[in-house]
Amino acid sequence: MATLTMVGAGMMGTALTFPAADNGHDIRLVGTHLDTAIIESCREQRFHPRLKREIPAGVQPYFHHEIAQVLPDAEVVGIGVNSRGVAWAAEAIGQHLRPGQIILMVTKGLAGTADGDLRLLPDVLKDGLPAAIRNRVSIAAIGGPSIAGELAARRHTSVVFTSRQGDILPTLRDMFATPYYHIWTSTDLVGVEVCVALKNAYTLAVGLAAGLVEAQEADSAGAQMHNFAAALFAQGLAEIATLVQHMGGGLETVYSLPGAGDLYVTAQGGRNTRLARLLGRGMTYSDAIEEMPDETIEGIDALLAIVPAIERAIQGGKLAADALPLLRRMYQIVTRHEPIDFDFDSFFGQLPFGQ
Amino acid sequence: MATLTMVGAGMMGTALTFPAADNGHDIRLVGTHLDTAIIESCREQRFHPRLKREIPAGVQPYFHHEIAQVLPDAEVVGIGVNSRGVAWAAEAIGQHLRPGQIILMVTKGLAGTADGDLRLLPDVLKDGLPAAIRNRVSIAAIGGPSIAGELAARRHTSVVFTSRQGDILPTLRDMFATPYYHIWTSTDLVGVEVCVALKNAYTLAVGLAAGLVEAQEADSAGAQMHNFAAALFAQGLAEIATLVQHMGGGLETVYSLPGAGDLYVTAQGGRNTRLARLLGRGMTYSDAIEEMPDETIEGIDALLAIVPAIERAIQGGKLAADALPLLRRMYQIVTRHEPIDFDFDSFFGQLPFGQ
Hints:
Oligomer: homodimer
Largest interface: A-B, 58 and 58 residues
Number of helices of chain A: 17
Largest sheet of chain A: 8 strands, mixed
Strand content of chain A: 5-15%
C-alpha cells in the first residue's frame, strides 16, 4: 500500500485514481480553486459531477487549502490540472514536496515560451519548483489513448508511462496497472509529450471533414468525406514523426499508443472535434469559440504555441522550409480565417524512413 | 487522350472511371457476369445503381461478352472485380491483351495458395495470364483510403499508385490525377498489397468495440469503448509493419496512406465494421454472416488466407513465436468462437524501430 495525492480533480486526474484505488492504495484527491464544487460533491455524496460516477472508497477528497496535510507523505504526487495550470501547480506543490517523491503528470503536452521556443510541460513544472527540491524529485508522464470516462468505467485502456528516469517506472506501473488499465513504459518523454500536444492539433484537421460535409448541399448518394479525413490523419501522423524527430524523440512512440493510438481516439469525438466541425461549416475561429464558452480547446492552444516556434526553427534552418505543411496551414485557417483548402502535393514528402 | 478499359463495374472500378473521364479519356466499363443489371442500367439510364450516381459522359458501358471489342486497343486495362474474381479476370482478359498494355488493379490484397503461402493479387493475376503475354504487360495497383462513393462524388481522395515497374507510374498518374484525386507513386508493391489485405482484418478487431458496448448494460455515465478500439488500432498498425517487413515491403508504406490512412478510413464504417459489431455483441461468425448474406467480408477472407500462412512461417522459424498476437487471436475468435479477450501484455513487443 502506497499513498497517491492527486492535485486537480478534473475528469482525467480523478479517473486515474480509480485503478490506483482498485489496487488498494491510499488516495487523496485535491481540488484546485476551480474544483470547489467537485470536491464538495465528492465529500457530501461521494459523486464526481463531471465523471458522473461515484468515486472509489479509497479516494479521500480535499480542498486546495488542505494540500499541506496530504502532500508531504505521499509516495506519488499526481498533477491533473489543465495544461494552462502547470505553473500554478508548481507553485502550489513546491513548498510541500519531499526528496524522493515521484511526480506523475496527467497534464501533458508542450508550452510555448516567451522567446518562442517549445518546452515540455514536465520541464515547465520542474522549472517552477523551488531550486532546493527541483532535482530531488522524479517526474513521469502519461501518453496514449485514454478517455477519462472510459477509464473511470474501468474499460480497457492502454497507455505509456514515461520518464527520463526509467528506474521509477516499475513503481508507477505497479501502483496503477489493473486488469483494465494496461501500462507500457518508455524513457522517450520527449516523444510522448510531442505526440500528446500534436494529436490535439491534428484532430482539428481531421475533424474539419464533418463540417465541410454539412456546409455543402447533401450529396444525392450520401457521400461523406472520410477519404479526406483519412488523408489528413495519415499526413498528421507523418508530421508528428517529423516534429518528434526534430525534438529528439523516437519513432516507436509516434507509431504506437502515444501517436497513432491517441490521434485515433481523439479524432472520435471531444472538444477539438466539435470545434473543427464548426470551422468546417465555415465559421471563423472567433465565432466558433463563442459556441463553446469556458472550454479549453487543446488543439488551438497547441497550434498557437507550436506553429510560431516552428516558423522560427524554419527561419533558423533547423527544419526544412516545406516541413509540416498541414499544421502550418491549420494555423492560417484558425488565425486568419483562410479558406479550408490544402496543397495536397505538399503532403507525404518527408516520411522519416526515406522513400 | 488515351483509352481505359475497366473490367468489373462494381463500385470501386466504376468510381475510378470518374477522374479518368474528367481528364477527357475514352473509357469503356465492362461488367462481369455479376454486373449485368448494372450495365443494363448504365446503358439505358446512364445510372449506376450501386453508386447511386450518373456515370460520366465519357464512360461507355459494355457487357462481358463484348470484351474482345474494347480491350485490345486500350492503353490501360483496369481490373475492378472482387478479390475472389482475379483468376476469372485473368482468364477473361488474357487472350485479348497486347504487348505494352498497362494493367491497373483496383482489386487488391493477398491470396492464400493451396500450399499455404501468401501471394500478392497482382502476381495471382499475372500467373493466370497466357505465358506469351505475361511478361509483356506491366501491372500496377492502388492503395490508400478510398471509399468509392466519395471518389465518385469527386471528393478529395488521396491514394498511392504502385508497381514494381516504376516507369509506368507517371503515365498512370497523368491519366487519373485530378484536383480531387491525389496520387502519390511508389514501387513498394509488396507493402501496399499487404497493407490493403491487413487493414480489413484489423478493422474487424477495431470494430468489435461498438458491439461489446451494446452487449453490456448501458453505462450510467455513457462510457463507450474508444480506448479499447484505439489500442487495437495502434497494435494493428504495428502488426501490419511486422508483416510488411516480413514480406519485404517498406515502413514508409505502412505509416502513410496505404497503412495508417486506409486502416483509419476502413474503421469508420462498411461491411467489416458491421460484421465486427455483430461479433462484439456475442454472435458467432456463422450466425453473424447470415445477417449479411451475399456480401464479401474482405477482413474474413484476409484472416482465413493469412493466418494459416503465418502459423506456418512461425513453425518454420521465419517469424517470431509471439508475432502478430492480435491477428492470430482474431482468427481464434472468428473460427472457433473463442471469447473476445486479448492478452494486452503481448502487444507492442515488436515495434520495427527497436525500443
